[in-house]
């Protein structure tokens, strides 16, 4: 990429200090940009993401801004949101001015205040949409999409995300996520299964991720005579501790017997897949599905819900098994389908690994992301992106 241009600074705003799917994609965005630009990342708090960003070459600034959560969707919550936004907006504006930002990259629609700050500071902005809220009322969807009018460029991570945006989605461009391969040669899956079969769900504990569906499906498998364990790798959002308690109650004796394990957050997904025979992605809502790609790259057979962006990743019978979403019985059937033909499952996993490396590779993502950011400030830049929502 050559030498950095003096004063060529891009500010990246992100809503979370954690290290899950969209957080990992932020790291890849930083890696794409740092060879030619100074990259400053604004996070609302310190957390596991901060040192990873610094290792990638970014400067990290802690600047609390309100993040749109369901907790704000009440009259009292909206008042709190307004006060928080009023306090944060001047700080965001000052950061853009102080760093002499050439471009603003807002990662997800859940921090629209940054788009306002960019407009006030006269910094061209790109909003990278990782959400696909297609089940919310029309007025709520319109409210989520309205701030996108302030962005010069809208990038989405799947056709599902574009469709969920409505009008703004029609002027967006798709850049599929780029997922890095395991740092070392991944552990091969077991050629022959010996009980217990090890099933893993890697991702935040959340109703959206279908953690409860996984627990129910594991119970159904055991009732059918399959000796199977389920490991849930992830933690809850603050304020969602009630959901973890519900999972514990749902698992019941299986949790006490070790047939269901709540492993908590792990910074590396590869360790979890190395310990698993099968990876499941039973999400109710999944705009893309990094973990499905990661499981493929780890060589594990994948069972995924046929919802949103997952249908753009998983092709049933070719690189994985697709099942009806929000259906524990269907998920159990999909897992049993792999277990009953393990040789076929391993052959499919081998195809899936090559397919994931080709379609969702990191180098392709870096190239397309750089072009999108460069086009913000260079009117002569020609996009090399081949994916389009139009």
List keywords for this structure.
single chain; alpha/beta; 6-stranded parallel β-sheet; disordered C terminus; 41% helix; Rossmann fold; 15 helices; 390 residues; 13 strands; 7-stranded parallel β-sheet; globular
Could you please describe the fold and organization of this structure?
The protein has 390 residues and is an alpha/beta fold. It folds into two domains: 9-178 and 361-377, Rossmann fold, CATH 3.40.50.2000; 197-359, Glycogen Phosphorylase B (Rossmann fold, 3-Layer(aba) Sandwich), CATH 3.40.50.2000. 41% of the residues lie in helices and 15% in strands. It has helices spanning 21-33, 49-56, 75-98, 113-120, 138-145, 159-165, 211-223, 241-251, 253-256, 269-274, 290-297, 310-313, 328-339, 342-359, 362-377; strands at residues 9-13, 38-43, 59-62, 103-107, 125-129, 153-156, 173-174, 197-202, 228-233, 260-264, 278-281, 302-305, 321-323. The strands form two sheets. It has a seven-stranded parallel β-sheet with strand order 3-2-1-4-5-6-7, with helices on both faces. It has a six-stranded parallel β-sheet with strand order 10-9-8-11-12-13, sandwiched between helices. Helix 2 links the parallel strand 2 and strand 3 (59-62). The longest helix has 24 residues, at 75-98. The radius of gyration is 21 Å and the shape is globular. Mean pLDDT is 89; it is low at 383-390.
């Amino acid at each position: 990429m050559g030498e950095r241009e003096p004063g060529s600074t891009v500010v990246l705003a992100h809503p979370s200090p954690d290290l899950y799917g969209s957080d990992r994609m932020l790291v890849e965005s930083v890696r794409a940009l740092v060879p030619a630009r100074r990259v400053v990342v604004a996070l609302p708090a310190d957390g596991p993401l901060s040192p990873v960003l610094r290792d990638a070459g970014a400067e990290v600034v802690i600047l609390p801004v309100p993040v749109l959560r369901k907790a704000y969707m009440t009259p009292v919550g909206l008042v709190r949101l307004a006060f928080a936004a009023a306090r944060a907006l001047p700080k965001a504006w000052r950061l853009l001015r102080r760093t002499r930002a050439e471009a603003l990259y807002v990662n997800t629609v859940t921090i629209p205040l940054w788009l306002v700050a960019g407009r006030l500071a006269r910094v061209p902005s790109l909003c990278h949409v990782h959400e696909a809220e297609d089940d919310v009322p029309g007025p709520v969807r319109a409210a989520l999409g309205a701030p996108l009018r302030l962005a010069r460029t809208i990038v989405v991570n799947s056709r599902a995300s574009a469709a969920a945006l409505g009008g703004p989605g029609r002027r967006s461009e798709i850049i599929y996520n780029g997922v890095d391969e395991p740092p070392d040669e991944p552990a091969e899956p077991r050629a022959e299964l010996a009980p217990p079969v090890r099933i893993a769900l890697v991702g935040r504990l959340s109703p959206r991720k279908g953690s409860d569906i996984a627990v129910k499906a594991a119970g159904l498998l055991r009732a059918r005579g399959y000796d199977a364990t389920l490991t849930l790798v992830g933690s809850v959002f603050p304020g969602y501790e009630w959901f973890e308690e519900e999972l514990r109650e749902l698992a019941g004796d299986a949790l006490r017997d070790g047939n269901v394990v709540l492993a908590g957050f792990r910074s590396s997904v590869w360790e979890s897949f190395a310990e698993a025979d099968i990876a499941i992605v039973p999400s109710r809502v999944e705009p893309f599905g990094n973990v499905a790609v990661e499981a493929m790259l780890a060589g594990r057979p994948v069972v995924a819900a046929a919802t949103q962006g997952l249908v753009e990743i998983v092709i049933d019978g070719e690189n994985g098994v697709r099942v009806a979403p929000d259906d524990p019985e269907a998920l159990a059937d999909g897992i049993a389908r792999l277990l009953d033909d393990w040789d076929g499952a391993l052959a499919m996993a081998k195809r899936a690994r090559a397919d994931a490396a080709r379609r969702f590779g990191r180098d392709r993502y870096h190239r397309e992301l750089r072009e999108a950011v460069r086009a913000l400030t260079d009117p002569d830049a020609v996009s090399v992106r081949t994916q389009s929502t139009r």
